[in-house]
Amino acid sequence: MPERKFITQEIGSFRKPDYLSRRFHQIQGTEEFTKLAEKATLETLGLFDQAGLMNVGVGGEMFRWEMYEHLANSLEGIEFYGLVRSFDNKYYKKGSVVSNIKRKSSFHGEELEFIMDNTEKRIKVPITGPYTMMDWSFNEAYKSREDLAMAYADIINQEIKDLKKIWGGGHGEEKLEIQIDEPAATTHPSEMDLVVDSVNRSIEGIQDTEFSIHVCYSRDYRLLYDRIPDLKLHGLNLEYANRDTMMVGVSDEARIGYDDIAYFSEINEEQYPRKFLGLGVTDVHINEIESVQLIRDRIEYAMAFIENPTNVRINPDCGLRTRSREIGYQKLKNMVEARDQVYGEY
Amino acid sequence: MTEIKGLIYGTYPKSDELRIKIGRWERGALKGAEIEREISAEKKLKTDLFISTGSDYTDPLFNWYDIFRPFTCATEGISPGPLTRYKETNTFYRLPEVDHVGRMKINPSEFNEIEENPPLPMFQKNSDPKYFAFFPSPFSFFKMSKIKEDVTLEKFTAGMISIYSDIMKSYGFKNTLLFESLPYQGEDMSLLSPLIEKFKTILVTEGNLKFVDFTPIGKKLYSIAATSEDRNLEIASKHSIVPGIRIIDSHNTKIEDPKTVKETVNEEAEKAGLDSIYVTFNDYLDFLPFSIAAKKLEMIKGVIN
Fold first, then answer.
1. Segment A152-173, tens digit of pLDDT
2. Helix H segments across A22-143?
3. Is CATH 3.20.20.210 the classification given to domain B3-304?
């Protein structure tokens, strides 16, 4: 029986080696690109193995440049007119939906096939969710935000069905795990119905698959927790470390970033089966490497509310592409060590 | 026939070239004085473009990392906090953390290197009567900051208005534009009077104006540019000389048809019995790619007369 207690996992992205990131856009779509993306994936899987991660995701998303752009580039109906400011002098590509969107080809199939051939560990495929894709696009073509989000949901649903075909009889004893990435999920509180409907549509009719949602940097996770009964998901992978203090200990003051887990648990108690919570225990926006003790304290604090260790997963707040590979590795290593230390206690 | 005037305000998207140069400055490959020269040169180009549309305009603010940043970084008692989502967008600003509002630590009209933002001066010098100096309204600034308990809205507003007035004086500006990011919540509008009394002022407002009492200001503003909620234009026209309507979408790349916009503006102006009206954007243009912002300017040129 595979281990179910405190599964350690990646959220998605990991910093690309220079030989890939420097030439990514120049060679994308060529044989050389595939070769380099595969090489980078193998090296990243090696790092994850060394760190002791139990779920290796898709090896750090080496086939993808960025979560929005990768999916948008695989669709008909989207034009890119240029970059848009995210903050300071940091920009991202925001597409304009200029006509009905349609999938040109599978956007994660090649990546999944490669991963399945190259690891025995658990795999989780992150897919940018329909609500976030809608919210991060300019909408020139659809009548409403609702229509566009549901169109994205239909496309994601087709993609997951294709991934299921690739998964086929499975990978050891594990189910295919899909993580719907929805960083925009709680940005428009009045649209939580649309978040629920579009995420549910994305996974509609797909059996024998584990579905989770990843949300990060939300101003109010309660908006999401309140909708747990409506979301047809098995778990949530969330960011907490960023809002926490760096003090060790399990006091409420030290663990301020995790204080709303009590509210999560209240809602989760009514669910059958209960949802798992992927606990962000390391901040991807700072270079400081959280000590094993600090991460332990974060896990132990959360356990006071969640109690059952099979309902807790341990992960970074978000993709580690924001840090160097060395720092990312150290953060994962300490995370695994902290998990191993608390393992015996529950 | 109603005179339709254009208004271009706030942070404007940078060209790829300038963005890359600022990136080099961030990494230490360009000196402060060098990047300031580059920024000034591009500001000059864009200012010329704004002028060519026939609109009234503000500085393109290429050296403002967000609409509060020069104040957040260079005012005694205010410091930059964590990145925070700007309203419901996917753009972030550094949360101003306010202990008190002191004076500006530097002369903002001169070259100055400050932390967490490209070098100042804050604005280019400009004596064009169509030019307005852009400032974030102290009301929205207050609501979008983390404020120490004993700093009241009254104290904060008085402090910021005094800073804005000093900046206006140091540049010799006559016109100003106060930009409101959030709807009013019963603020005492007379708190803005010290600025409005001295300078020709455009107030770019957000939300429904039905419950806003402009009378304590004691005089008509030059303009209140309002979003298109019911009765907003009527209220704006009661309290300002050239009311404005914020109907061009700066959150969508679709380019509006100038004929349709013109018809809508004319209809609205006629209903409110106006001789002149501003047509402007529902937000500043920095939410759009550079190429689209240029097309929106071309479009506004076709609307105004």
1. 999 999 999 999 999 998 787 8
2. 24-27, 31-51, 67-73, 109-118, 130-135
3. yes
